[in-house]
Amino acid sequence: MDMAKFKAMFLSETEEHIRSMGSLLVEAEENSADSEGINALFRAAHSIKGMAASMGYEQMAGLAHHLEDSLDNFRKDGELSRSGIDRLLAGVDLLEELHEDISTDLPERDISGFMEQEPDAEQAVEENIPESSETIIHFLKLGLQENVVSPSVRLLLVLKQLEVLGTVENLSPELKQIMDGQDHRRLQFSLTTKLNEQEIKQAFQDYPEISELIFSTEPPPEENRKQDRRQNDRRGNGVTSGTVRVDTRLLDQFINLTGELVTNRHMLQTALGDQNWRELNDGLGQLEKLVKNLHGQVLKVRMMPVGSITERLPRVVRDFCRINGKEITLKVEGAEIELDRTILEEVADPLVHMVRNSIDHGIEDKGTVKVKVWRDRSHVQIQIQDDGRGIDPQIIRERALEKMLLSSKQAESMSDSNVLQLICHPGFSTTDQVTETSGRGVGMDVVKAAVEKLGGTLLIDSKVGQGSCLTMKLPLSVAIIKLLLFKCEGKSLALPLSRILQTQQVDRKDIITSGKQLMIELEGEKLPLISLRKVLRMSVPPAVEQISLVVMELFGRKVGLVVDQISGHQEVFVKKLPPPFDRLRGTNGGAVLGDGRVVFILDVQGFLERRR
Amino acid sequence: MSKRVLIVDDAQFMRDLLRDIFEQAGWDVAGEAENGRKAFEQFQLLKPDLVTMDIVMPLRSGIEAVADIIASDPAAKVVMCSALGQESMVLEAVNAGAKDFIVKPFQAEQVLRIVNRAMA
Fold first, then answer.
1. Number of C-beta neighbours around residue A450 at 10 A
2. Which of A280, A477, A538, B106 is spaced 20 to 30 A from A262 at the CA atom?
3. Do A150 and B120 touch (CB under 8 A)?
4. B101 vs A contacts (CB less than 8 Å)
5. In this complex, which of B90, B101, B117 lies closest to A206 when CB atoms are compared?
6. Does residue A80 lie within any of the structural domains?
């Protein structure tokens, strides 16, 4: 029998089971598992075993069988030991890896290492077998000489060499990125091996292309994050599978709607033939309703509960606490709220990133991180709040001055809350030191960029000594959004309405200069002006008395974007540009307007970054 | 006994150049091949200690030839000859089992350093 056609279903179902095993285990650890929890775990392992065996995936079936056996033992005892949970979690990780192998059409990896190392789970509790003291985990940074040709290939070869020496994990950049052939010259990883530092160095004696090899026995703080990111990627962010399971009732509704559309088409055709304008008008009114209804239903199919991405947070927090000895409680509220799967996919990593920031830098020894999700009209807000030390705006000010992101005048006039947003500035985030003093920084630019790419906004609020609160305000869906339309040099251009703070007409005479920078005072705040014509390298516009401003945030600062004319707003269906144009920075796709014209959706920040 | 190398490249010029480098260093050039198919035949016939393999060749590419060779002898030592800009192909070859790569234009010292390391 040809099993290939079942593969997608197999992958999506096993993924669900694997994920639920992960969360059940973390839960079990917190509330010392009851028999109900163990039963659920047992059932999941059992299902995976059956499915994998039918598909002929021997490694996965074997591993699931093995986990099922240990769970059966625990079931008899009626409780799960801590070491048992560790062991099972390791098994679940391995299941995920096998899942990934299968989904990427690779041969299943060898898991005999895990199976053999299995001391009978119960024995492990009683005897508490110590880990082999011989193996050491080295955390290494490796750099290649500047003049090395084909550095990616070189890194791959070095990796192969490393794998002869021991087990390489926590790789950054990931193998996939190296294989993409980008110019990577640095590698960070952990190496679990019996060799000591000297012996490893010796193994690379013959490699003059390696310019540095730095050892440490502790994971660098960044390592945690990288490790995390890697795990997220590996473990899939819960929404990556290409298939969707749809309630059959929804499908029925689609059929009904299609039927009504067919009827509607006939009605319109007849009305047109009869030149009956009233009928035609009624028909169009119906069509509008039907399309709106259809849109709503399609969106429903794309919706998934936010829980699919918050599900892995307990594990992140648990693993972190175990390594760093902190005591952190994670609370998740509103996991049942639904969002478009594309959006969930995009914010999955940023979310982990922010939670990681909170538990790593915000909270010192003990505290609570709360992830709260709620629906707010046409938006969903996801808030990450901690009761840690908070961010000191004064320190950010000083840093921004040092980094020359602000002039001293700007630093003075800027409100504290605007200052806080600066932690998302790319120039700000790259400095390691900031993390230590301000408690935040690394990667926030990436988070903000991800949120804004979706047409959302990121708000940062913090009080020194009371904690920080980061809020992502996200649209419900990405495909259909509202655009603000405007013109420059006769061309229609657009920005997502959600990115815009306000639009304003100002008099030319109100423009003030500060050095070379033109500014305007709006509601007591001085905004720098940026000419869109200049950004787009268009001609200089003729001088006019009234200037149209679009107020938005760029690089964490409020600015006034000068456009020729604001033409209104419209709801549109956004289309991504086809490759290779999708790689151009400066646009976030395009849309066809009601009158057939095409507009590009600008990514002004991307444009300016490209310019740098 | 000196080590034996099989040189694979569709350009006579390149083969001569490599032959010169290897012979100067005391290697024995066991054979040459000008395409991937012949490379595999020669490999099975000659069982050389090392193969240098060009990437873009007629009949069967160097990447395919590496895969053939490694499939027949997983311990075979193949070093790819690449030019600038062939990074993704070299990656593929390394994944297929090539031990290392040398970059054109060849420099004797670089070539020997890399092949000796691959032999270790």
1. 20
2. A477
3. no
4. 150, 153, 157
5. B117
6. yes
Query: Are A340 and A399 in a shared domain?
Result: yes
10 Å Cβ neighbour count for A445? 19
Q: What is the CATH number of the domain that holds A598?
A: 2.40.50.180
Give the bridge partners for A520, in sequence order: A527
Same domain (yes/no): A542, A505: yes
* Count of domains observed in chain A: 5
Task: Name the minimum distance, in Å, from the CA of B58 to any CA of chain A.
Answer: 24
Q: Do both A176 and A44 map to the same domain?
A: no
Residue A338 and residue A459 share a domain: yes
Cβ distance A150 to B82 less than 8 Å, yes or no, reads: yes
Q: What is the ipTM of this complex?
A: 0.78
Choose the final residue of a domain: A263, A282, A301: A301
Which chain A positions have a beta carbon within 8 Å of B117's beta carbon? 206-207
Task: Name the strands in the sheet holding A517-522, side by side, starting at the edge strand that comes first in the sequence.
Answer: A500-507, A546-554, A557-563, A525-531, A517-522, A512-514
From residue B28, give the alpha-carbon distance in Å to each of A245, B5, B21, B105, B110: 63, 6, 11, 22, 18
Which residue ranges in chain B fall short of pLDDT 70?
Answer: none
Distance CA A33, CA A82 (A): 10
Which domain-ending residue is among A110, A137, A154?
A110
Q: Torsions phi, psi of A383, nearest 5? A: -120, 135
Average pLDDT value for residue range A579-598: 82
The pLDDT of residue A146 is above 70: yes
> Is the pLDDT at A550 greater than 90, yes or no?
yes
Answer whether residue A242 is part of any domain.
no
Interchain pair A206, B100: CB under 8 A:
no
Q: Which of residues 80 through 99 in chain A touch B, CB cutoff 8 A?
A: none
Alpha carbon of A209: minimum distance to chain B alpha carbons (Å): 11
State yes or no: cis peptide before B105, omega within 30 of 0. yes
Verify that A579 and A545 share a domain, yes or no. Answer: yes
Compute φ and ψ for B64, nearest 5 degrees.
Answer: -65, -40
* Residue in chain B lying closest to A153 (CA): B91
A487 vs B1, which has greater pLDDT? A487
Look up the CATH number of the domain holding residue A204: 3.30.70.1110
Same domain, A102 and A120: no
Does the beta-carbon distance from A156 to B94 stay under 8 Å? yes
Give the residue among A520, A524, A523, A525 at the shortest CA–CA distance from A510: A520
Structure-block tokens of residue A563: 């456009």
Inter-chain touch A156–B84, beta carbons under 8 Å: no
Q: Which of A592, A462, A590 is nearest to A603 (CA)?
A: A590
Q: Where in the sequence is the domain holding A175, given as residue range(s)?
A: 116-236
CATH number at residue A21: 1.20.120.160
Residue A243 domain flag:
no
Task: Tell if the CB–CB gap between A152 and B87 is shorter than 8 Å.
Answer: yes
Residue B22 vs residues A39, B11, B109: alpha-carbon distances, Å: 67, 17, 11
From CA A447, how far away is CA A353, in angstroms rounded? 8
- A9 and B CB contact within 8 Å: no
CATH number at residue A461: 3.30.565.10
**What's the pTM value of the predicted model, to 2 decimals?**
0.48
* Residue A316, CA distances (Å) to A138, A225, A313 in order: 22, 10, 5
Is A206 near chain B, with CB under 8 Å?
Answer: yes
| Same domain (yes/no): A312, A449 | yes
In this structure, are residues A115 and A63 in contact, taking their beta carbons and an 8 Å threshold? yes
| A291 and A339 belong to one structural domain | no
